[in-house]
# Entry
Amino acid sequence: MDLQRLKPHLPWITLIVLVVFVGITDSNFLKPANLLELAGDIVPLFIMALGLTFAIYIGGIDLSAQSMANMITVVASVYLASLGLWVAVLCVLLGFGLGLLSGFVTTRLFVPSFISTLAVGGVCFSVAQWLSGNRALNMDAEQRNALFGWMIGRTGIIPNELFIAAGLLALCLFIERRTTLGRALKAVGAGEMAAAASGLNVTRYKMLAFAISGALAAVAGLLFSVKLSGGAPTIANGFLLPAIVAVLVGGTPLTGGVGGVLNTAIGTLIVAVIRASMLYFGVQATQQQMVFGLVLIAAIALTIDRSKLRTVK
Amino acid sequence: MKRLMTRENAIRWAPMLVLIGLVILFTAINPAFLSQRNFARIAIAAAPALMVAIGVTFIIVMGSIDLSMEGTVGLTAVLFCFAFLATGGTLAAGAWVAIPLILLLGALIGLVNGLVHVRLRIPSFMASLAIGFVGTGAAVLVTGGDIVKIDDDTFRALLTWRIAGFPLMIYVVAALALLAWFIQSHTTLGRNFYAVGGGEELAHASGLNVRRVRIMGFVLAGVFYAVAGILQVAKLGQAESVSGANFMFISITSVVVGGVALWGGIGGIWNTVVGVLIVNVINNGMVVIGLPDFLQDGMLGLLVILAVVLSTDRRSISFVK
# Structure
């Protein structure tokens, strides 16, 4: 049993070890109600990580996800009154469109994705500040409950967010495993040169990957604003790091090609357990960033495929 | 005349022309822009940003990237305040010790950054992003989210003592920019940055210890971030964990807009100086002519895309990630 054969199984082994470890130290942790609440709370982060998976799967990165979610919380709060349920459509389209723009800038204008998405993130931040007038906005509680209340309620003891998460995961899994798009993304991630040489329209598929990432970041923002019943230009700050961590500890390396959305689901659960255990050990939310930064380095170092990087820049 | 219009010349002079054009444009809209007072204001706003941008220039010239500046600036600014207060609270009473101490800390953070990037073979943008998160987290940890104030007239003279209308810190920054230029152009290390950026495999094949050069680059960048942290404290008289906020976007935009190619090997300190001035003239000019300031990040975002597009030789690259 060498490390290479063990590697694909590391994420879920890590998860189980963590759960057992935390379960032993904190007897309340393993109660179903607690676990369900924990899972429900992490859903907006999970959706963002789900989108990020597509960008990372092709060997890129999307640093605009957080700004996108920020902007969407503002858009949702501002237009809920006038558009009603259609505001959801607007949000997803906006995310898809801006993601497409990131993809266009990356693939057609040859700007590396971490710069192009950073720039698009800047645009999102401007839009959010402009729309909100740099204030925290509130949704009309009655209207929110009538239109989007189903997102945050409970069915039995199960938070409804989990159904949304499961639905989106199934959709993404379908895209990844059962569609031409999914196969194409795998080819691009495994070897872009070879994919292009075998006649694949690499540009189009890469643009679509960024668009999916943008759209899911928008869904995450929408859900988050519904949860908080409002929005602000910096409200979702602090999402980006754990979202990237979730993708990477799940086993989708920065170099792309392997892993996928199911891995991200496991990765997000790992993040959730780490968070819960940190709270239990008295590490405050504001200090968790340091821990996640270190986890991130470890996760990249373990997962990255060095044979794909001739020179590490 | 035809030889003058080469790509190299266009890239070399375009940022300077853009800067002059912007100054003329803003002056035409509001003559108040072209005043010594306003220029001093721009210079003060630009001073810490210039230090960060110069630091990251060394890295970008090598073809790598450093995204750790927000955390490094935040942490050094906060710890500088603590060290300053612990060693007496005034420059005269021995608190000057805090300055070399914090520069050393900057170098140390840079060293960790470089080691993680080179030894663990992690792409620099991700390694430095993670280190940046750790830095911000550490800054929150030591401050507990509070603001640390420094109230020392001697130290604040960096901002309050004016020579020919410009505060002392501007002259400090100018001297450090000269130093950076000296390192870049007249030292082996500076030459080596260009060798690595121009073609890493070639540099390696000709016997250069590429890994060491890379680590040294990150150390040097860390020192400049620490300077920025100290200047940030001098400017505001206080520090908090978010003292480094927004430096990542501003500094990288500046470097790229100034004409330093993201691919490495092209451009240098002077491009960065011009780039920082362009970004700050735009920020200041937008306020002077009465545009709302929330447009700034969006404008800069579009500007950086434009700059990368213009400075990229599309024939020489096949694909980007």
About this structure: Chain B is about 70% helix and 0% strand. The radius of gyration of chain B is 20 Å. The longest strand of chain B covers residues 148-149. Chain B touches chain A through 56 residues (CB under 8 Å).
